Amino acid sequence: MKGLFRGGFIVWTVLRFGLDELVLASFDKPWIRLVTRVVSIGRDLRAPRGQRLREALERLGPIFVKFGQVLSTRRDLLPPDIADELARLQDRVPPFASSVAVGIIEKAFNRPLSDTFASFEQVPTASASIAQVHFATLHDGREVAVKVLRPDMLPAIEKDLALMRTMAGWVEGASADGKRLKPREVVAESDKYLHDELDLLREASNAAQLRRNMAGLHLVMIPEMYWDYCRTDVMVMQRMTGVPISHTQRLRDAGVDMQRLARDGVTIFFTQVFRDGFFHADMHPGNIQVSLAPETFGRCISLDFGIVGTLTEIDKEYLAQNFIAFFRRDYKRVADLHIESGWVPAQTRSDELEAAIRACCEPYFDRPLREISLGLVLMRLFQTSRRFQVEIQPQLVLLQKTLLNIEGLGRDLDPELDLWATAKPFLERWMIEQVGPAKLLAQLKAEAPAYAKLLPALPRLLAQYLKSPGLVTRQELVQLMAEQKRTNKLLQSIIYGGLGFILGLLAMQIVVRVRLF
C-alpha cells in the first residue's frame, strides 16, 4: 500500500511539473499531441522545462536528485538548458533551516554550539541531496567544514527503495531480459550504498582510506577527518579551498593547464580502480574542486565520500585485461574473456561475439572525446549484450556510472582528450606489475608471517611424534628417514623450480616491455 501511495505521488509530481510534456513533445502523432493538450489543462507550465525538471527531482527526493546529478555530467546527451539546470543539483539543492542544523550538531556533541566551535557560519556553503555543509572554526584555530545530515532521510529513502524493489520484481518476472539484467541485485547494491551514505562515520572512514591511498600520487588532495568531532549525523573535516571544476573559464583565467587537469583526472580514476580497488564513486563536478594555492596549484580536491566502490582482485584483473584488449583492438581476447568469466553462456561462439564487439567499438577509436560518447558506445554494447545474453554484473554498476562521470568531466575540460591513449600506458604498466617478480616477492612477504610461525615449531612437533609411546617402531623409523630424504629432494625441487620461475618471469617481462615499447 505504501508503494502504491509513493507511486501515485511520483505520477502526480510528473504531471504537476509537466515532465510528461518533455517526453511526449518529441512525438508528432496527432493522438499524442491531443493527449499532451488534455493533460496540460489547468497546469501552469510557463517556467522553463529545465527548471521544472530540476524542481520535480528535488520534490521527489534524494534518489531522484542523484539521478539528476548523474545526468548533469552528460552535456553531450542533453540540451544545454536542461544540463544547466540539472547542474544546480550538484551543490545547490535547497538547504534546510540552519536552526535545524545547529540542533543536530548540539545533540550529536551533547553541548552548546559555542562549546564546540569558536565560530560557525549559519548560512551553508553547499547543500546537496543527503547533507549540507557549513564552514566553522575550532577553538584551536583550525578552519573546518561541518557536514550535517538532512533530517528524516532514512524514511524517505526507504519508501523509494521499497518501490524500486517492487518494480524490480515486476521487471524480472515480466521481461524477457529480466533475469539477465538482475534488477533486484542492482537495487540491492543501491540499497547498500544509499544506507552507507546516511552514516557520516562511514563516510569519514572512506575519506581516510582514500587519503592514505592517494598520499603518494600528488595529483589529488583529500581533507583530513577530525575524528573527535565525527558522529553518524555530523562530520567535521579539514576545510579545503578551491574552485569548482565546472568553472572552466575561471580556471583558464587563473592559468590552470586544462589538458593536464583532464589527464590527471583519468590517472586518478584508474589508479583508484586498478591499483587500489577502492574508488570515489560520486565524481560529479559538485564534488571536485581545483586548488589555486601556489604550493598546490592545479591539483584536484575530492569531496563527499559517502559512495565508494570496491573491486576484488578477480574483478580488477578481468577488467584490466578487457580494457587492454579494447585498447589494442584485440576483440577476440575480449570475447574470450567474457566467456571465461562466465559473463556470457559457455556455449557462445567466440567468433560471433568478437564480430559484434568489433562493430560496436571500432568506429570510435583514434577520435578525441568531442567526437565520441561512451554513453552511445555503452548503449550499443547493451544491445549486443542482449543478443548474446550477457549477464549484468551488479558490483560493476558503480564503476560504469563513475566512468560516465569521468568522461563527462573530461569532455568539459579538454574536448581533444584521447581517453584511450591516456589510459592505455597506465593499464599496461599495471599489468606488468601484476605478473612481475615484484608482485611475487610482495605475495611471499605477505605469507611470511604464517610460515615464520610454522617453521620453528617443526622440530618440536617431530620430537613429540618420535617420543609418543607405541608409535615408532624400527620399521617406522626407517620409513620416516626415507620420507625425510624424499622431503629434502622435494624442497630442493621447490627451491630450484622457484628460481627457474623467477628467471622465467624476468624473461617474460623483458619480452613484454620489448613488445610494448
Can you describe this structure?
The structure is a single chain. Helix content is 61%, strand content 8%. α5 crosses α6 and α14 runs parallel beside α20. It folds into four domains: 2-87, no CATH class; 154-192; 251-435, no CATH class; 440-516. β3 and β4 (143-149) form a beta hairpin. The chain has 517 residues and is α+β, with helices and mostly antiparallel strands. Strands 1, 2, 3, 4 and 6 form a five-stranded antiparallel sheet that branches. It has a four-stranded mixed sheet with strand order 5-10-9-7. The protein contains 23 helices and eleven strands.
Sum this structure up briefly.
With 517 residues, the protein is α+β, with helices and mostly antiparallel strands. Helices cover 61% and strands 8% of the residues.
List the SSEs and their pairings.
Elements: H1 2-16, H2 19-24, H3 30-39, H4 49-60, H5 62-72, H6 80-87, H7 98-109, H8 113-116, E1 117-120, E2 126-127, E3 131-138, E4 143-149, H9 153-174, H10 178-181, H11 183-197, H12 200-213, E5 220-221, E6 234-238, E7 243-244, H13 248-253, H14 258-276, E8 278-280, E9 288-290, E10 300-302, E11 308-310, H15 313-327, H16 331-341, H17 350-361, H18 374-388, H19 397-413, H20 419-435, H21 437-454, H22 457-467, H23 474-516
Parallel strand pairs: 5-10
Antiparallel strand pairs: 1-3, 2-3, 3-4, 4-6, 7-9, 8-11, 9-10
Helix pairs in contact: 1-9, 4-5, 4-6, 5-6, 9-11, 14-19, 14-20, 15-16, 15-20, 16-17, 17-18
